[in-house]
Amino acid sequence: MTDRRLHEQVHIIGAGLLGTSIGLALTEKGVDVTLADVSPTAVRLAVDYGAGRAPRTDDRPGLVVAAVPPDVTAATVARALQEHPEALVTDVASVKGSVLAELRELGADVTRYLGTHPMAGRERGGPISARADLFVGRPWVLAGHDDITYRRAGAIEDLILDVGAVPIEMTVAEHDRSVAMISHVPQLVASAMAARLRDASNGAVGLAGQGVRDVTRIAASDPGLWVQILSANAEPVAQILRGVRDDVDALLAALADPEAPGSRRALAELIAAGNAGVARIPGKHGTDKRFAQLVVMIDDTPGQLARLLTEIGELGINMEDLRLEHSPGAPVGFAEVSVLPDVEQRLVDELSARGWRIAGAS
User: Fold this and answer.
1) Integer Cα distance of 342 and 203 in angstroms
2) Which residues form the Prephenate/arogenate dehydrogenase domain (predicted)?
3) Which CATH superfamily is domain 10-171 in?
4) Predicted TM-score of the model (pTM)
């Protein structure tokens, strides 16, 4: 392939979702990729899927990627630095500070190490779930430190660009604070809310709509993996949780006596602060845009959703997002379609004229 940036041989340690997906994306570009894992079966599967090949004794990788669980990342990187003295080494763990600190304690040559973190994944793991396009358009953080320059780590940026991701430069500390805010604390909040559902009545659970589904969507996560992640990033997570705790305490005080002076104001101000916070979340293509939503009722029969999406495309309207909700026992579903505000009314009018039932718009 002539359009690739990376020309070094790449050795990937860890044939799980991320490691195999990186291998698939790079081999599509013509990069020579070798794979290793503690599980021979995982390696064979990854090779069968086309993510690379088994290593040979004469291999001389220029770049090594450790795609292993957080609690063994530092040891894996340190071993790779020793076994491949000419190679640049990176990892894809979701916490960077503890890995770098452990490497320094081990006396590893961190002048050849730069940690990274692709902001991509799937609900399922393993090589069977890997995809070559997993990283396309996704941020991929390069967590810089004082012992290496970004220029020295140029091959890592080449890898990121070759798999279709967007490189983002941060310091190690900035990365860990950032992922605590946008990933680790949301996981805990979602899990805490989902845990309340264990004791909910069947009637209450039967009423579950998009609100509780949105809040708890990420709660079905691997406890073992998250214990590793949270333990490695404990202080930034705890700092944010203390702020959440203060907000909850203020809510409890207001709800204890809703008629007391200032109680309603406290409730309103927290909701308004949430409005301001969610408005900062980047929209499609990384821009801060607020989209309009309309809810379309669709019959619970084969082909109806496909017909809706086809007709939106025929109207020349770009759909920014789509969410589906199905009420148990009901013969209809609800498709919440997000579009730019300036085309919302035209879409409502056009879909209504075509016989679609609009259940709501904003």
Assistant:
1) 40
2) 8-285
3) NAD(P)-binding Rossmann-like Domain (3.40.50.720)
4) 0.79
